[in-house]
Amino acid sequence: MRIPHSLLYLANIPRTVLALAALTCMSATAQIPPTPPAADAESKDAKPASQTTLDRVEVTGTASETEQRRASTASKIIIGKEDIERFGDSSVSEVLKRLPGVTTGGPPGRGGDVRMRGMGGGYTQLLVNGERMPPGFSLDNLPPDQVERIEVLRAPTAEYGARAVAGTINIVLKEALKKTLNEVKLGLGAEQDRLSPSASWTRNDKFGEHIAYTLTLSVNKSDSRDDNDTRTRWYDLPTGNQLLDQHETGYGTNHREGVHLNGRVQIGLGQGESLILMPFFVMSQSNSFTQSQLDQAAGGVIAQPYASYTSEGDGRFTMMRTNAQWQKNLGDGNRVELRYGVGGGTYESHSVRNELDTTGALNRTVADQSSTKENGWNLTGKLSQQLASEHSLVSGLELDSSKRRQSRTTLQNGLPILTDFGDDLNASSMRVATYIQDEWNASKQISAYAGLRWEGIETSSDSDAYDVRNRSSVLTPLLHATWRPDEKSRDQWRTSLTRSYKSATLSDLIARPSISQRFPTGANEVGSPDRAGNPNLAPELARGFELAYEHYLDKGGLLSANFFHRRISDLMRNVVALEDVSWSTDKRWVSRPQNVGNATAQGIELEAKFRLDEMWPTALPVSVRTNVSFFDSSVDQVPGPNNRLEGQPKGTANIGADYKFRGLPLSVGASVNYTPAYDLQLSDIQSNTMGAKVVTDAFLVWFINPKAQLRLSANNLAPRDYLNTSSILSGTQRQDNESDNPSHIRWGARLELKL
């Protein structure tokens, strides 16, 4: 068997770190059992904060989320099951938008890509049960019913990984129920005249004294419609004359069905030894239809590409993954853990676009069919040691490998395009990482965390037309510290000094072009360029600093302020340029990622959680949750003003409250999420204005009896249009685009039963 090239990175790892990582695997005879929630308190008492606050699986103790947050040396926010399900959200991304410093990239009420500190495009590390998911998986498809808790780390740690310039969000799937054998939830959502039913079932039971299991099954259907209104104008700059005026209106519908299954089997092997099996299965399919009408003012100097078009498409995503975790308690606070995961995913899509001219005759047909299959495995070993003087040492070694096979065919009027590049693509990735971290409780007032992580990644692809290989490695030192003014103080200060990075994705590296769908042949436009990869991309590196103050209230509330700063080098950004290309005899506008220079990002996040009667004794016991964040960034090589990181707003704010009536079996609540409009200068020729987003949600829960409750919800009350504009310069001409997307209220009802 050929040894992957990436394994040669091991020769470059510092000897001390490698020795500790090797000890982890060589000592693979044990670790403490993965205690169910009721037993976690015992493991917590046996060990200082590090192992309960930094471990990916075992943060499940009886302490409240606020208490766990307080005990963690590295800054961590934990969102429990109650908060996740409070508003009856249809997706996990909708839940995340209420967290401090978190924004979503989609229209109001539609979820979208999740961004910490407003930084998108891979700056936020997203994990499910501590693992990265394959291409095609989206948090928008993960129902909140499947989630046990959400862990948010504002700064990287050695164990979670340093591919987290903005931070890490870890989604932990359902774990064991405390008492109930069965939990059933039946839901129905409605948006406009479209219904979206859902159902979930969780089973919790034991086989004898040594085997316990939890199984969660969710099924859901959703129907949605989105309208769009886009205006494109071209101007001649020397004269100010309008050269072109295009107005495109249309709508799109999407129907989606999904099945999610995850389980957890805990097997006690005796003498502090245990085995956990965690299968995870996802299957979703979708069907979409789009219809659009394009009107062009008479006298335009650019030919109208089409008068109308229809597009139909379908997609199917399937993923199966199984993780096995073996642990053993070695005594005296020492433990060893081995993890192995294996799985794969398949994503298939097919679309047909028919363009008609002004007479209604068929002008052009574009058919696209794609199939992507990915499989992989990962192996991790971790050794936890309780040393003298309140030191907790954790070292680990991680290996993971993935292979992707993609086949894509694009036909224009029945004839293939881009034939020189082939339809098939084989790619692989190999990652090797090792780390060591030491958490030290120096006193009852001071705790410190020091970590060092090395990570090497090799990505390669092979096809008939091109061969791509990219290697990178990063050494990341990490420091965290917490200080309490006195041992009984409810005040504490946190600080972090970190190094993190963002690696290029496979799609960024692969050079196979993607032709602009609107202008597939001949002259294209700077506003609708072809797209291609760049195999020479280097990873972004970021030096980070955090400073936070937290005040914990007597009844579980808190007040906090967190400042962050990131200095980024080798920033990656898509750059549009006119190029000589192999797939056309004419020069084409092409967008491809490039390392453009350096950038700075910084901001402050303010948060408050409390009950009104905690602040004012005569007030009602209304629970209040509010946060506001301010972001700022600049790209050195882009002229200002507004030369911000792509997609980063100037801030975000949330306020929410809920109240449980005295003497009535009712609980009500509401929240408002606000992201202001902002201007963005992407380059010397391109600028955007992103519209404001205001999302108002409300809920009511009727406690029918101790084992049944009815939850009513309204998401995106007071809907508003989402307006975005862009401007692009091309020589002596300027292209202005304006897009208006309406949003809608989503109503929901869910019956929740414990059987």
**At the first level of CATH, what is the class?**
Mainly Beta
- Biggest sheet overview: 22 strands, antiparallel, barrel
End-to-end separation in angstroms reads: 52 Å
CATH superfamily: TonB-dependent receptor, beta-barrel domain
Percent helix, as a range, is under 10%
- The general outline is globular
Low-pLDDT ranges: 1-62
Query: What CATH architecture label applies?
Result: Beta Barrel
- What is the number of domains? 1
Q: How many helices does DSSP assign? A: 8
Question: In terms of topology, how is this protein built?
Answer:
Elements: H1 15-26, H2 40-45, H3 49-54, H4 65-71, E1 76-79, H5 81-85, H6 92-96, E2 102-104, E3 114-116, E4 124-128, E5 147-153, E6 167-173, E7 182-191, E8 194-207, E9 211-236, E10 242-270, E11 273-296, E12 308-331, E13 334-356, E14 362-387, E15 391-412, E16 415-416, E17 424-441, E18 446-462, E19 467-483, E20 491-502, H7 506-509, E21 530-531, E22 540-552, E23 558-579, E24 588-611, H8 612-615, E25 623-635, E26 651-660, E27 666-675, E28 678-681, E29 686-690, E30 693-705, E31 708-717, E32 722-730, E33 733-741, E34 746-754
Parallel strand pairs: 4-6, 21-24
Antiparallel strand pairs: 1-5, 2-3, 5-6, 7-8, 7-34, 8-9, 9-10, 9-33, 10-11, 11-12, 12-13, 13-14, 14-15, 15-16, 15-17, 17-18, 18-19, 19-20, 20-22, 22-23, 23-24, 24-25, 25-26, 26-27, 27-30, 28-29, 29-32, 30-31, 31-34, 32-33
